[in-house]
Amino acid sequence: MFPEYRDLITKLKTTDHHFTRLFDKHNDLDQKIKNMESTAHSNAHDQIETLKKEKLHLKDQIYTILKKASDA
What we know:
The protein is mostly helical. The chain has one domain. It is built from three helices and no strands. The chain has helices at 6-15, 17-38, 45-71. Helix 1 packs across helix 2 and helix 2 packs antiparallel against helix 3 (45-71).
């Protein structure tokens, strides 16, 4: 995720607890979605879609923080 910000991500993960929490939650959701998709039953589709929306929202928040930090 955001390879162009790799160095900044490393820096923020050690200095910004909020960023670290968002980043970790995004990765946890990503893994959960992958696990659910690999064993998904038709009734899990709605739950997967909800998790994907939550993950996208986290990604947007992460990008906003990265953009602000890179502009500073």
